[in-house]
């Protein structure tokens, strides 16, 4: 009985994944525009967990020179891969910061 339950769960998960990828692909193709996104607040639970601040304490490390930020250089608020659906301040910083190559 346990093998049937595991196989059944595997098939459900596999089917859900295929459906999610099929339906979600349009969301992944559409680029995020910071003007369309709400600004990330420092009170946001995920921001708190990653110690996000709007002003970086280190002038060498800020969102504008992070590999995870998206959008156009020079924009004050830009989308970030760490905070989907929110725009981060280009002068900000979080503990997920990674230097651009």
From TrEMBL:
One Pfam family this sequence matches: HIPIP
Keywords: 4Fe-4S, Electron transport, Iron, Iron-sulfur, Metal-binding, Transport
Residue stretches making up the High potential iron-sulfur proteins family profile domain: 34-101
Residue ranges the record marks as coiled coil: none
Keyword Transmembrane helix: no
Assembly information from the UniProt record: Homodimer.
Family designation: Belongs to the high-potential iron-sulfur protein (HiPIP) family.
Function: Specific class of high-redox-potential 4Fe-4S ferredoxins. Functions in anaerobic electron transport in most purple and in some other photosynthetic bacteria and in at least one genus (Paracoccus) of halophilic, denitrifying bacteria.
Name listed for the protein in its UniProt record: High-potential iron-sulfur protein
Organism field: Photobacterium rosenbergii
